[in-house]
Every structure is written in C-alpha cells, then in structure tokens.
Amino acid sequence: MAMWSLLGARGVDVLAWESFGKGWVTDITAQLRLDDIRVLEADYGALPDLSRVDCDRDVVFTWNGTTSGVRVPDGSWIAEDRAGLTLCDATSAVLAQDIPWSRIDAATFSWQKVLGGEAAHGMLVLSPRAVERLESRTPTWPMPKLFRLVTKGRLNEGIFRGDTINTPSLLCVEDVLDALRWAEGLGGLTALRARADANLAAVERWVGRSAWARFLASDPAIRSNTSICLKIAKERCAHLSKEQKAGLPRRMADLLDRERVAHDINAYRDAPPGLRLWGGATVETADMEAVLPWLDWSFATLVDAQ
Asked: Which of the listed CATH numbers 3.40.50.970, 3.90.1150.10, 3.40.50.920, 3.90.400.10 matches domain 187-304?
C-alpha cells in the first residue's frame, strides 16, 4: 500500500538482503515498473553497503530481515535532511528494536510478531512528509480500492483513527488490546526490547560454547534479536554429502517437532539451510535456554547416525 501510494515522484533505492526485501524489489521493478531504480543487494547474513544509499531518492528497505536474522544497526545512515522518503518494512522489529522514527517516513509492521497478536493485521505509520507526498501527487497507475489512502485530494484520516474501512475481526482487535495491556504491565517498550535482547544473549552464550552452531549473521552489530538464524559449521559436517548437509537442519527441526520440543524452527524456504529461533518479547528467556541443549541433542543424534 505504501509503495503503490507514495513511489514514483523520485528515483528509488531499494535494499534487499533476504526474501522479503527481494519481494519489494520485484514489486517495484516488475509491478510498478518505475524508471529510475537502484537495487542494493547483499547475501543472506550480510547487509548492502549502506553508505551507497542516496537519501535524496526514495529508499525502500526492511529494518529487520526476518528470514536472514540481519537488521540494520541503527538509523545513522538515513539523512535527517533527506529530500526523498524512507519506506520501511519493520514487521519483526517494532517493539523489539530501537526505531528512530524521525528518520522513517512510512513504516509498516504487524501485530503478530513482537506482541503475539493475530496474523494478517498490519499497521501503517506515516510522517508529515509522507502525508504531503500523498496529498500533492496522484500516482500515474490505477490504484486498487484497498490501497487508496487519499480521498478527494486529502489524506483519509479515518484509516488512522480506527474507522471501519474493511471490517476486521473485533476478536482480533480485543486480542491485540490485551497484548498491549500485557506489555504495559511488563514495563512497556523498554521491557519488550529487554526481553528480546535477553533471548538473543542466551543464544549468543550458547553459540559461543557450541562446536557446531554458528550465526548466519556473523557481525553482532547487525544480528537480529527476534529472528535468530543459525547455520551449521562447515567443519562439523564436512563428511556429509551435499544433499545430507542441505537436509540436516530440516531433519533436526523435524526431530524436535516430533519430540514436541520446538516447532517450525527450520530456516525459511528461500534462505540457506539452517535453523531459525523466534526471540521476540513473547518468548520467555528460560524457554529459550531450555531448547538449546535439545538442539545439541538433535545434531548429535543425526550426525552420529550418518
């Protein structure tokens, strides 16, 4: 919605270092078909060179790469006096990581990640500069009804007041309100961030002792505290065939699922083979610490069986 409504007035720098960022690249290049596009890419586990970003252009990026475990370290690379707009997919970052809101012009995130609310519900946050773009420029392409943020040349403020545009499940609304009350009772935003940080710290301590587990993001400065992505050290599986290496994390995940220890911890389907642990604020650090010896058990069980 934000891209279809806001892009087109300037050239665009779009950053991609995992599958969802690459999806925005596809939308911009193949669907919107803008004329002036620069794609800045990096492999899983790394970031593009942020010094190359031109903030006089519009910039589209994910704050936290959910499928790679890589996040931008901070907002210092985003110019405060930028002429372009910054559009940020902050889905698995908001409420768990420090977002410099003064440097973001359009941000989206979903309830279900850090708060643990129902999936399929998203939030859109716009800066005054983004609103000015909406009200001063009409996109040249047809706009689906669902994407229309402007009515008669003015921002449709009802969308942001909570007016019923397309009726959501009110049970889902009550669920997220309950989650917000839970978060407030913990100590609010500071406490939510601290819980996610503690989960990452627990995994970091374990990886530091592990003979086989490594972070996909080797640089701690860009390592996600929510989508914690692991890979298997090459030297620990050198005796396995290529197919066995690729399939080992999935077999570990399946084994732990059957043991009812951990569920859905295999790496995302487009990511390199590995494991992915969710470290958001809804996860108790004691539970994170409890699952780690089971990872060791599954690795030993399957590798010793080869």
From this structure: 3.90.1150.10
* CA nearest neighbour of 255 among 286, 221, 224, 297: 297
The β-bridge partners of 60 are 14, 87
Return the CATH number of the domain spanning residue range 2-110+122-167. 3.40.640.10
The Cα–Cα gap between 235 and 239 comes to 8
Which among 289, 301, 271 has a CA at the least distance from the CA of 209?
289
Q: Is the pTM of this model over 0.85?
A: yes
pLDDT tens per residue across span 92-144: 999 999 999 999 999 999 888 898 888 778 888 999 999 999 899 888 877 77
Q: How many CB atoms within 10 Å of residue 230?
A: 23
DSSP 223: B
Question: Which tens digits make up the pLDDT trace of 67-98?
Answer: 999 999 999 999 999 999 999 999 999 999 99
* DSSP secondary structure of 242-304: HHHHHHHHHHHHHHHHHTTS--S-BPPTTSPS-EEEE-STTS-HHHHHHHHHHHHHHHHHHHH
Which amino acid is residue 19, in one-letter code?
S
